[in-house]
TrEMBL record:
It comes from Paeniglutamicibacter antarcticus. It holds the Pfam family Sortase. CDD domains: Sortase_F. InterPro entries: Sortase, Sortase_dom-sf, Sortase_F. Gene3D superfamilies: Sortase (2.40.260.10). Keywords: Hydrolase. SUPFAM superfamilies: Sortase. This is Class F sortase. The keyword Hydrolase applies.
Amino acid sequence: MNRLPGIAAVALIVLGGATSSVSPRTAGGLLPPRGVATVSAPASSSLSPMKRTAPAPAPVQVLPEIQVKDASVKPAGKALPAPARIRYPAIKADMLASEVGIAEDGAMEVPDDAAIAGWYRYSAAPSDKSGSTIIAAHAGSIPTPRGPLYDLRESRAGQTIEIVDTKGATSLWKVADVEQLHKETLDLGPYFSDTGERKLVLFTCGGRWDKDRQSYDDNIIVTAIPAG
């Protein structure tokens, strides 16, 4: 299996225009469209497995990306079939997936349209025997103000996620952990692993919307394990 490019200890999923590290190809400096309603993140509850740091209202528009380190050497893409479709019935998500790599600024590419997820081609394929399959999508975008993964924050342990690959094979995954973590303290190292037990990791943004920085404070991360 190809090794992942070196992953920075500091990793962010941020809104376009928030920092100088944002890739213009994935962000474009877009701001929340006028007239888009804000939706409050659900309050913390003892019945919810989500680990929260600061639940707060968050507008729909968000353009996430993952910062990676040392993208000068880009390994070849995976030979195994890539994810082609993601179905997550519990949050009514059904979306296509495309292969993405690393932008020139060292950020993981993410499709501009929130209706399409990006599979990090240097991570594990669905049929791999070890490592993490990394998939990220915008919570919202201009073409799709409320993306299929906007409700990722509503995920619960035990729910089933389906990944269909380019050969038509379907793999089933069971949600094991749901986290809402502040970007400034988040270490993505444990999530970006091409060794060890099989995992599926889904990313999007959430938490409080910081108007000054034009960015969400938190990342929503769902980790799932093979269901069978």
